[in-house]
Amino acid sequence: MRTVALHLAELGFALAVLAGVALIYAPAALILGGLAGVVAVERALARLSPARRKENR
User: Fold this and answer.
1) Total tally of structural domains belonging to the chain
2) Would you say 48 and 56 are in contact if contact means Cβ atoms under 8 Å apart?
3) Beta-carbon neighbour count of residue 30 at 10 Å?
4) Are the C-beta atoms of 21 and 29 separated by less than 8 Å?
5) Pick from 38, 37, 36, 18: which is nearest to 28 by CA?
6) Rounded Cα distance, 11 and 35, in Å
7) Which of 1, 30, 49, 53 is the most exposed place for a label (fewest CB within 10 A)?
8) pLDDT above 70 covers what percent of the chain?
9) CB-based contact 29:22 (threshold 8 Å)
10) With contact defined as beta carbons under 8 Å apart, do 11 and 39 qualify?
11) Which residue segment(s) compose the domain that 23 sits in?
12) pTM for this one?
């Protein structure tokens, strides 16, 4: 439960940052959103065991 709350807080803060950047310069917000997505996928893959990572290729 604690982990879910932390993930939701992280998502909320990331969305707030992206919204703030979008108010100033929309293309920069899209670039930051893309980078954040890549980081999120890499973090999720890092949690998998090596055997599961091999299955997902």
Assistant:
1) 1
2) yes
3) 13
4) yes
5) 18
6) 14
7) 1
8) 88
9) yes
10) no
11) 2-55
12) 0.69
Note the residue count of the chain: 57
53's tokens: 């990572």
30 pLDDT higher than 70? yes
The token pair that represents 26 in the structure block:
């929309």
User: Which amino acid is present at 37?
Assistant: G
The string of pLDDT tens digits covering residues 32-57 is 999 988 888 888 888 877 766 566 66
Burial readout 1-24 (b: 16 or more C-beta within 10 A, e: otherwise): eeeeeeeeeeeeebeeebeebeee
53 neighbors 45 (Cβ within 8 angstroms): yes
